[in-house]
Amino acid sequence: QVQLVESGGGLVQAGGSLRLSCAASGRTFSGYRMGWFRQAPGKDREFVAAVSWSGLATYYADSVKGRFTISRDNVKNTVYLQMNSLKPEDTAVYYCAADQSAGSLRYTWSTWDYWGQGTQVTVSS
After folding, report:
1. How far apart are CA 47 and CA 94, in angstroms?
2. What is the torsional sign of CA 71, 44, 109, 98?
3. HSE (CB half, 13 Å, CA atoms) of 82?
4. What pLDDT, on a 0 to 100 scale, did the predictor assign at position 27?
5. Given CB 3.0 to 4.6 Å as the disulfide criterion, which of 12, 45, 59, 104 pairs with 39?
6. Band of the pLDDT at 124, cuts 50, 70, 90?
7. What is the C-alpha end-to-end distance of the chain, expressed in Å?
8. Can you say whether the dihedral through the CA atoms of 95, 96, 102, 103 is positive or negative?
9. Residue 104 pLDDT greater than 80, yes or no
10. CA-CA distance, 43 to 41, in Å (whole number)?
11. Would you tell me how many other CB atoms lie within 10 Å of the CB of residue 94?
12. What is the DSSP string of the chain?
């Protein structure tokens, strides 16, 4: 079992930065692949970024490559999403997720096992 709580969302101007945090509870945290998804009003939840159990491998949606950075601290049981050069199209509710699967990364949100409640990110033009 893993419990996830996101924080760090808010309102920011285009070109600005935010860092999202996801605090995880559970002794097996280090064994989970962690990721971030986002959902804008009227749209499906979409993959943003993921990081492997070890933290060595990272994955990004094409829309955020070069701007967002995912990282994890297994000592603090925390996952981060550093978001730079934010654009209005980044506006969405951002969700932290955990996946206990050991195989290939899955980009479909419904296949991930645990979810936080989400944090709102709004980017103004």
Report:
1. 10
2. positive
3. 7
4. 66
5. 45
6. very high
7. 40
8. positive
9. yes
10. 6
11. 23
12. --EEEEE--EEEETT--EEEEEEEESTTGGGSEEEEEEE-TTS--EEEEEE-SSS--EEE-TTTTTTEEEEEETTTTEEEEEE-S--GGG-EEEEEEEE---SS----GGG-SEE---EEEEEE-
Least confident of 26-30, 54-58, 91-95: 26-30
Query: What tokens does 122 get?
Result: 């709004």
Amino acid at 90: D
What pLDDT was estimated at residue 28? Answer: 67
Q: Which tokens sit at 54?
A: 């070890």
User: How confident is the model over 34-46, as a mean pLDDT?
Assistant: 96
Q: What is the pLDDT of residues 61-72, one digit of tens each?
A: 999 999 999 999
Backbone angles phi, psi at 99, to 5 degrees: -130, 120
Residue whose C-alpha is closest to residue 34's, from 67, 4, 68, 66: 4
